[in-house]
Amino acid sequence: MTNLLIIGGSDAGISAGLRARELDSTVDVTLVVADSYPNYSICGIPFYLSGEVADWRNLAHRTAEEITATGINLLLNHTATTVNAINKSVQVVNQQGQEQWLTYDKLMIGTGAVSTQPRIKGLDIKGVFLLHSMDDTFAVHQYMTTHQPQRAVIVGGGYIGLEMADALTHQGISVTVVEHSPTVMKTVDPSLGQMIAEKLQQHSISVINSTEINTIELQGTELVVSGSNGFYRTTDMVLVAVGVKPLTDLAMSAGLKTGIRGAIQVSKKMETNVPDIYAAGDCTETWHRLLNEYVYLPLGTTAHKQGRIAGENAVGGNREFAGTLGTQVVKIFDLAVARTGLRDLEAQEARLNPVTVEFETWDHKVYYPGAKKLRILVTGDSQTGKLLGAQIAGHYQGEVAKRIDVFACALFHEMKVEDLSELDLSYTPPLSSPWDPVQMSAQAWVKYVNKSKF
Question: What is the pTM of this model?
Fold first, then answer.
């Protein structure tokens, strides 16, 4: 009987444990979780804090009881501190400081990531929060309940920062978003970043770009936030959301090699350099399917896939991770923004020959009520015709997520842009057009590139 020990109870860890038990009912799986919230949706935190999800317990993909019912042993509120790879054992400590050693035949490390702490003076002041864990969530919720803040400054204009701008506005709080880049959400093209900024401003959110926060101070009962370009703002709370970094202290104690941004180096089988130790999720590097190289790109969808592969291989499988395309979507008020593959600049850096064409059309036949505009950016290689990436922005009811998934599927199978016209996509006037917007945008790209050649 195989003894599989998994460190980390989020997406990668749970997926590994479930897959191992699915394939081998005799495997003994123990899941070590640092808190008491296994398999919770971190991505759902903004929607709990907005009030749209009334009960935080609903953020659980599975309850602890549902997990143990699969035969997985849960060890909650225990932190793994040291791995002895020679003796195949892991030291864990509970909240009372009591230590014990757990043995393993196979070990999977899925410790995830932690919030990046920028060099801002005053991060430890009451009313200043990072947001990545359930404990962070409860701290923010408690503060909002007891202090009734009227104003908030969010440092960081990425996914979490923008979703929290939406969430806090839902709670009647006046929000300022400060981003060091020229536009918010720098993972999409500036034209879409501008669309997002305009949407935020429509909801009375102040957007400050090209500004770096330096200091947070407590003056009386107010927080004072100051930064470059003369930025100065008094507020009641501050949320710092400038990204994450891999949590790899445990991995390093085992002698695991790390690489990009300190993430654990793994093979496509999620193997580390140490025998019988696997790693998956936000603590690891990720194979990029288009770039054909490893990157650090922490995504929940990727963590689920990698964990599943690690769990399968830990019980004798031989599966490989097919690679990421960086497919993502975010909803900000009624605007949805999505991307997959490479943007023009990223493709240039990869020494490809990108051409990006922007196209605007309706999400369904305009004669049917409620049609919304979609803005689609298609990036393809001008020499080979291959699709390289896509970005879409539009009303969230305009099937933005569905349509970025069509592009992602095409990318996965290395299709040419022109081939998208051959796809047999569904159509009815309330939902699409005979040529879906995906296909119309692809045709616009082909037309532009062909015209440019003459």
Answer: 0.94
